[in-house]
Design a protein that fits this description.
single chain, 267 residues, alpha+beta, 2,3-Dihydroxybiphenyl 1,2-Dioxygenase, domain 1, 2 domains, 8-stranded mixed β-sheet, VOC family protein, Glyas_Bleomycin-R_OHBP_Dase
Length: 267
């Protein structure tokens, strides 16, 4: 993981329209949205309001009245992995979706309009990792970062970084910055010199039941306290809290199995 943003004050950094290729939203589709809202509301202090219903029941999570994430309900007959999905900003979802196809990816849903909020598609890269595309209209995406309870970073966990990073570079125009290390396969994806996401090749360490997937990091005030809270709320610890160059990090799962990471900023 690397740092995704500049420093933010006590009230966080607010965002206008996101540059193309920037992760601009994270969304979670589950079977039990009421219980999931209760879990994340207790963990992060989120409140909820209805969002576009094009893909079924959907709410937006708010922190201090500002939008940070979305939670929707999977159709009962869809047995898909429960996972947080980052949406990457696009000025033209239809064109980006076609580029995804041409570069060996798959478009599973859309492109379609989400009421007056914007236009979306849900895609997967050549390794099978799922991500979304978002063309903003009224809804610009995550409205605040840099405070506990907000997305801090998005990272692709995959078999190896080189080929899949080239896919994202071709589709979104990222500048790649590889970490020079004999024991770490990591590429940072930059826009205008600013890191916006990462690709981490972990080979056989990938979960057998999940395969390549995107991981969302959420900022917390105290990682150890947040991990204990996750367990109290019925979640699970996948990787205990540990210190990293970017802060104290842990990987957990919510009661339905959606994996996410918690990070306490080192600053």
């Amino acid at each position: 993981m690397t740092e995704a943003r500049g420093s933010a004050g006590q009230n966080g950094a607010t965002h206008a329209r996101h540059a193309p290729g920037t992760p601009c939203w994270v969304s979670l589709m589950v079977h039990g949205p009421a219980a999931t809202q209760e879990f994340y509301g207790a963990l992060f202090g989120w409140e909820f309001q209805p969002g576009p219903q094009q893909l079924g029941p959907y709410v937006r999570a708010l922190l201090d009245g500002r939008e940070v994430a979305g939670i929707g309900q999977l159709p009962p007959d869809r047995h898909l992995p429960i996972a947080w999905t980052p949406y990457l900003a696009s000025n033209d979802v239809d064109l980006t979706a076609e580029t995804v196809r041409l570069c060996g990816g798959t478009v599973g849903v859309g492109p379609l309009d989400a009421a007056e909020a914007g236009r979306l598609a849900i895609c997967s890269d050549p390794s099978g990792a799922v991500f979304g595309l978002w063309q903003a209209a009224r809804h610009l995406g995550t409205a605040i970062t840099g405070v506990p309870g907000t997305p801090a970073w998005n990272e692709l966990l995959t078999f190896e970084s080189v080929n899949v990073a080239k896919f994202y570079e071709t589709v979104f125009g990222y500048e790649e910055e590889a970490v020079v290390s004999a024991d770490l396969d990591y590429v940072t994806l930059n826009i205008d010199g600013r890191p916006v996401a990462g690709v981490h090749g972990i080979g056989n360490a990938l979960p057998r039941d999940r395969g390549p997937h995107w991981m969302t990091y959420f900022e917390v005030a105290d990682t150890d306290e947040a991990v204990a809270h996750v367990v109290d709320l019925g979640g699970h610890v996948l990787r205990p809290a540990h210190d990293s160059a970017h802060g104290r990090v842990a990987t957990v799962a919510d009661p339905e199995g959606a994996r996410f990471s918690l990070i306490q900023d080192a600053c």
